[in-house]
# Entry
Amino acid sequence: MPKRKSNGEENSANLQSNSARKPVKAGSGGGINGISVENWRDYPHILTDSLWLLGKRDSTGAHTGDYHGNFVPQIPQQIIERYSKAGEWVIDPFSGSGTTLIEAQRMGRNCAGIELNPEIAREAMRRVNSETCGNPVKIENLCGDSADAKIWAKAAALTPDGVFHLAILHPPYHDIIKFGEDEKCLSNSPSVEEFLNTFGRVLAHTHAHLAPGRFIAIVIGDKYAGGEWIPLGFMCMQRAVETGFKLKSIVIKDIQDNRAKRNQENLWRVRALRGGFYIFKHEYILVLHKA
Ligand SMILES: C[S@@+](CC[C@H](N)C(=O)[O-])C[C@H]1O[C@@H](n2cnc3c(N)ncnc32)[C@H](O)[C@@H]1O
# Structure
């Protein structure tokens, strides 16, 4: 990757605008990324702390941010640069509006997405194809259920070795946002237990199709139900550890602009004071490793 300048303390993860990015050459040599640790001063934009205050969303190019429930592009930017090399294969089994696909293309990584909703899957590819970064990589978005082995076999067949080098998983936070009517959608899981069981199947496929020594990142938040804080993040983390992944980091990312609560700050403050709870201002990026 070209050397980037730091653009401020709080906003160090807001990377260069798309137009400033150069086509990326396939990486060579060992390791899990293209970072030269001896030249660590050349990477001021790469976060190494466990608290991510990402500031303003990157809305360059195809990143419109209009898909309710998407993540900020700075998340896949950070993860892709840290845990993959140019020319390698990334998978996102909940690809949504294609934020990971767009970033992978910009950063010179091949990428497969899996998305249940056919309309959303098509729209994500339209966005990918509207980018003109010039990197000669393959970006494919498959429509299907990421808990199903067949779609993983299809995804793996896209790669030369049948394995991925990085997985980024951003599932629904159970039923907080409803992503459609399909009963296979994780947002329609009838209970937290069933949500975790289905997510556990996705984790098992991820583990089976990840190259040894490689990483996954799970982006997930918690929820309230029945007057109780449900720690979905830690529950998903536990499932991932039970699947065979080793936990490397729990990153706390701030939520600056939660649409569901926008313009209702006072109402939520009163609810919190009455109910004895704290208002969500964070979500998790869980980083795990396949030994
Ligand atoms: C939190 S969103 C991901 C958003 C994405 N990171 C982005 O930036 O646009 C979760 C996505 O998972 C999809 N989804 C839910 N259940 C699924 C399943 N079983 N298989 C594949 N995709 C699923 C939803 O349709 C939704 O688009």
About this structure: The pocket of S-adenosylmethionine is lined by residues 67, 69-71, 94, 96-97, 99, 114-117, 120, 145-147, 170-172, 179-180, 184-186 (CB under 6 Å). Residues 72-289 form a domain with the Rossmann fold fold (CATH 3.40.50.150). The CA atoms of residues 60 and 206 lie 30 Å apart. The chain has seven helices and ten strands.
